[in-house]
Amino acid sequence: MKNGIMECSVCHSKLVSPSAKTISRAYDRHKSRISSKQRALNVFLVVGDCVLVGFQPILVYMSKVDGKFNFSPISVNFLTEITKVFFAIVMLLLQARHQKVGEKPLLSISTFVQAARNNVLLAVPALLYAINNYLKFIMQLYFNPATVKMLSNLKVLVIALLLKVIMKRRFSIIQWEALALLLIGISVNQLRSLPEGTTALGLPVTMGAYIYTLIFVTVPSLASVYNEYALKSQYDTSIYLQNLFLYGYGAIFNFLGILGTVVVKGPSSFDILQGHSKATMLLIANNAAQGILSSFFFKYADTILKKYSSTVATIFTGIASAVLFGHTLTMNFVIGISIVFISMHQFFSPLSKVKDEQNGVLELHDVHDKQRYLLISLLI
Amino acid sequence: MKNGIMECSVCHSKLVSPSAKTISRAYDRHKSRISSKQRALNVFLVVGDCVLVGFQPILVYMSKVDGKFNFSPISVNFLTEITKVFFAIVMLLLQARHQKVGEKPLLSISTFVQAARNNVLLAVPALLYAINNYLKFIMQLYFNPATVKMLSNLKVLVIALLLKVIMKRRFSIIQWEALALLLIGISVNQLRSLPEGTTALGLPVTMGAYIYTLIFVTVPSLASVYNEYALKSQYDTSIYLQNLFLYGYGAIFNFLGILGTVVVKGPSSFDILQGHSKATMLLIANNAAQGILSSFFFKYADTILKKYSSTVATIFTGIASAVLFGHTLTMNFVIGISIVFISMHQFFSPLSKVKDEQNGVLELHDVHDKQRYLLISLLI
């Protein structure tokens, strides 16, 4: 390894070492280029995420026939991956058509092979996401859905921990507390939905339940953070090409999952299109769009902004449904969102930033965070 | 008014003007003298407060005969004031006996008259506290006890606002958020005790209820902050002498209240010793000790530390009763105290301090706060 260039021991090609300190030179260059284009993208990401997350419950409701789903949930995952692959191909073709003269051709076989080799890391998050789809079902056997939702909130802290380890991100104490408050705020809002009796800390405390919870929380968090790492470490590769690999791997892993189900449950479960309607197609399109938006979050922003964005979306949905359907806002909801807003302000506030120990100036990263802070203040 | 010295328009005596910017020169001198004695006092205040607040519910329980009180609650207030006056006199005599040669004599009539004149402001908090004792009863007619408790939490924010206006204290945004979190944390813990149905924001929303709430929250907050102001502005006067005036005024106002009750309800309510037992005497002694401790908080620390101290005391009581009587800790309690601890850390953390705009250094005040931060970290 010399000057950050590493030789592959198998194919002897020269690779830029994704050294942990600087994720990628191209990404670092990008970090210092703060344009209005970036700001516009951030606004688009958060607003887009809010709209898509907001439509989700409506589409889920419309997809039900007589109060239940007629299709296999596993097929939804596979069809979502296929939709995302399809979208990535279309976008890639559009991007290739608009390439300027002199740019490296996007669709040449050599570009593709080189990118595929460099982005092989994307198989890791794809596998983790596929595993996560199965874990969700297993968790529901151990805990009731409200408890599963509550335990999911722990992901915020695990994601921050993984960002620290994998992406070498530094958080100030106030920012750690802000993340704990985000977790607490969402939990307060969910407290009322816990079944009677479980408000006492009477969670099942068997060793097995602890281990399942740990896996259930760590796998999707690791998937998101590793996805961010993989996308940013090959910053020069087109995001549509990266998406094509990510979703391609995803489709393969989900297909293997379906094959596994066929082996266990018999060939009837192979009929992946069974029970689908126009509404379920919209649901799949929405899922796919959320997945694609996530890639943009991970590559151009980060996993924490994605988490806050989803939380704001949930809050807007809650307020909108209260206004549209005349629900009363519960005390838990009002207290919960107050905590979330304080958390958000503290996390993105320039006051709570980690100062660079060497020279006492704010890190480049902070300039981005300040933008996001302004952006979120603007949205609220 | 010259050099901060003001002439009284009635008696023409020279008074040190309690200019708003510096509450008192003696207090400012005191602020810069940070001794281990001060630290020891802070520890004593918080620990003492925790013990007294912890005993309160036990004494209240012991004071009940067949599940109800046999004595008039108004008499408790009056007897508490009398106890405090008695304590102040005893302490004053003890202090006078230990005076060194050359010190200004504590018990001379001229000292007393001069101090009484300078500390006439203490009549204001004494009147406000007396009014507050009656307001508590009125509030219970409008709201159920759990709602009254919940509304009481708003005092934290009103106190901070009044400290800003009256004491010119500056809080950073993070500190304001910390205070909001303290309010939220206590509320989350109390949510479960709200009667079924009121978890929806279904508080009575009549104009009258709003006005009563505003008065109910503002009067005791103003009493505490004005008390802090009055005690600190005459920093040179012995605290026992100041207490004597404060509780003397208190006893007078409470006695007037009892006279008023006699006029309205007839002479039977004049028998202030009726229905008391050894347990109620202990309860009164506890109330008196809490009152005296408050004076020390207000003069040597501040109202916010007192609020945090009471909250920590409530938390310890909750944990102790769970350990002693085998209660399960509820999810609300665990989430609530997590929020309170984060709030406490953020409020006293040196990170969240208001920086002096002139020269970028921490204010003297902050050195005190840092001490308190260390103290509280030590206690938890």
TrEMBL record, chains A, B:
Main subcellular location of this protein, as a coarse class: membrane
Keywords for the protein's UniProt record, in alphabetical order: Membrane, Transmembrane, Transmembrane helix
GO CC terms of this entry: Golgi membrane
Residue ranges of the TM segments: 40-62, 74-94, 173-191, 203-223, 244-264, 279-301, 331-348
Xref: InterPro entries: EmrE-like, Nuc_sug_transpt
GO MF annotation list: pyrimidine nucleotide-sugar transmembrane transporter activity
Keyword presence, Transmembrane helix: yes
Localization annotation: Membrane
PANTHER family found in the cross-reference section: NUCLEOTIDE-SUGAR TRANSMEMBRANE TRANSPORTER
Designated name of the protein: CMP-sialic acid transporter 3 isoform J
Gene source species: Glycine soja (Wild soybean)
Taxonomic lineage of the native organism: Eukaryota, Viridiplantae, Streptophyta, Embryophyta, Tracheophyta
